[in-house]
Amino acid sequence: MNKTVKNAEEAIKDIKDNSTLMLGGFGLCGIPENSIAALVKKGVKGLTCISNNAGVDDFGIGLLLKTHQVKKMISSYVGENAEFERQLLSGELEVELIPQGTLATRCLAAGYGMPAIFTPAGVGTEVAIGKETRTFIVDGAEKEFLMEMAFDADFAIVKAWKGDTQGNLVFRETARNFNPMMAMAGKITIAEVEELVPAGELNPDHIHTPGIYVHRIFQGVNYEKRIEQRTVRVR
């Protein structure tokens, strides 16, 4: 039951070219910094990254974009990332922008073993092009819903405040956005934590993600506390 590995390099050692990764966090909060750095060092390429944000130029997923290791981004908000913008406009990077609620629910569907969800978000827009829609009766009236498929990720990489050797995880505040649901959804889930404790030390009532969903866990180092800032560019 001990799921600990030595470090990020060991945790991500079997991630290969062209893998699909879920990367937890919200903005720059609760992102798996150590694992991203290890992926940059490993040099794995052709990645499809599912993440609410795309980091910034010198931090988070932005580091993978800088080294051209990402083939496709599936995101809701891409933030202040000039390199992301450049690669998108030049056609170097494939991008799928989807509503934030849809992103979250497709993660949940994967964790729950559901093949698809139906959502009103995106109906009648470019998001719906090529996708199936169905009509349901809601509050006595017909309403159209868009069918969205659950994500199919090879790995989910998340970051928690605290975890134990069995993989039970506790998140803090904004870091609970996307990390818990992604932890449920990957075929293999890797968790890095600020503090790793022995099994039994966490209060069961405080655990957000049970260890059954986590395959590898390690204690990270040198975490930064950054805040993503939105600025307006004048062209």
What are the key terms here?
single chain; 235 residues; alpha/beta; Glutaconate Coenzyme A-transferase; 2 domains; 8-stranded mixed sheet; 3-stranded antiparallel sheet; 6 helices; 11 strands; 21% helix; 27% strand
Verbal overview:
The protein has 235 residues and is α/β, with parallel strands linked by helices. The protein has 2 domains: 17-100 and 150-219, Glutaconate Coenzyme A-transferase (3-Layer(aba) Sandwich); 116-148, no CATH class. Helices cover 21% and strands 27% of the residues. Helix 5 crosses helix 6 (179-185). The protein is globular.
What CATH architecture of the largest domain do you see? Answer: 3-Layer(aba) Sandwich
Q: Residue ranges: pLDDT <50 for 5 or more in a row?
A: none
Query: Quick one: CATH superfamily of the largest domain?
Result: Glutaconate Coenzyme A-transferase
Within the CATH hierarchy, at the fold level, what is the topology of the largest domain?
A: Glutaconate Coenzyme A-transferase
The arrangement of helices and strands along the chain is HEHEHEHEHEEEEEHEE
Continuous helix count? 6
Helix content: 10-25%
**How would you characterize the largest beta sheet?**
8 strands, mixed
Q: How does the helix and strand content classify structurally?
A: alpha/beta
What integer is the average pLDDT? Answer: 93
Q: How many distinct folded domains? A: 2
| Beta-strand segment tally | 11
Report the radius of gyration as a whole number of Å: 18 Å
CATH class of the largest domain: Alpha Beta
Question: How far apart lie the N and C ends?
Answer: 56 Å
- What gross morphology would you assign? globular
Strand content: 25-35%
